[in-house]
Write a structure and sequence with these properties.
There is one protein chain. By secondary structure, the chain is an alpha/beta fold. The chain folds into two domains: 8-143, Rossmann fold; 150-213, Arc Repressor Mutant, subunit A. It has ten helices and six strands. It has a six-stranded parallel sheet with strand order 2-1-3-4-5-6, with helices on both faces. Helix 2 (42-52) packs parallel to helix 3 (68-78). The radius of gyration is 19 Å and the shape is elongated.
């Protein structure tokens, strides 16, 4: 946490150079913020953050070599003092909750106003947590519903298989599941095959019926 008379030190990580450089210039013009570096992918973001120890990393999600969620997870271990504000195009619940689970303390959608971004950065630098208004409501609703008891449902499945089955029951395609969980399409296909075998169902439709009867896929 920076002292009151010291600027908030920020690292900007985004693979789109126009957006990355534009945001760096924009933030650098704000009194009380110092942009100490930029990164074009998740690997560079982690290495730069560990080296520079900024107060906050503004992190895109979809980046080459290492996505922003995995980069955030690594920073939580390798540089836990660094706060992460995710700034991305995606409002998908899977992406939001993956970022939160990875340790992000802020989540904004690209297109947010400058003052909202600055406020998120300074709040996270001060130890707080910030999410855009719409995202905050969805997160509150998610946790207000109470945690499910996944191990009580289909105990023969692994935690990952139950997660994938729940998304299947919610009508997600394999491609959408892969994107939401940051898995390769092949990994999702293999897990789906394992689910079919363990549940002794013939196809996707039968698996979805079984899952919904058990209360999965409601979100």
């Amino acid at each position: 946490m920076p002292d009151d008379d010291e600027p908030v030190r920020v690292l900007v990580a985004d693979d789109h150079p126009v957006f990355r450089d534009g945001l760096a210039v924009l933030l650098g013009s704000v009194p009380g913020i110092e942009v100490v570096g930029t990164a074009a992918d998740g690997v560079d973001a982690v290495e730069a953050a560990v080296r520079l120890l900024p107060d906050v990393v503004v992190m895109d999600v979809q980046m080459p070599r290492l996505n922003g969620v995995d980069a955030t997870r690594r920073l939580a271990t390798e540089a836990p003092s660094v706060g992460v504000v995710v700034l991305t195009m995606s409002e998908d619940d899977g992406t939001v909750f993956a970022a939160v689970r990875a340790g992000a303390r802020g989540y904004l959608v690209k297109g947010a106003e400058q003052d909202e971004i600055v406020r998120a950065i300074t709040t996270v630098a001060g130890g707080g947590v910030v999410f855009g208004a719409a995202l905050a409501l969805r997160i509150a609703d998610f946790f207000a519903a109470g945690p499910p008891a996944p191990s009580a449902v289909f105990p023969q499945l692994t935690a990952r298989e139950r997660e994938i089955l729940s998304l299947l029951a919610a009508g997600r395609s394999n491609a959408a599941i892969a994107a939401a969980l940051y898995l390769s399409p092949k990994t999702v296909r293999n897990n789906v095959s394992n689910i079919f075998a363990k549940l002794q169902v013939a196809d996707r439709a039968e698996a979805i019926v079984r899952a919904r009867e058990a209360g999965l896929g409601g979100r």
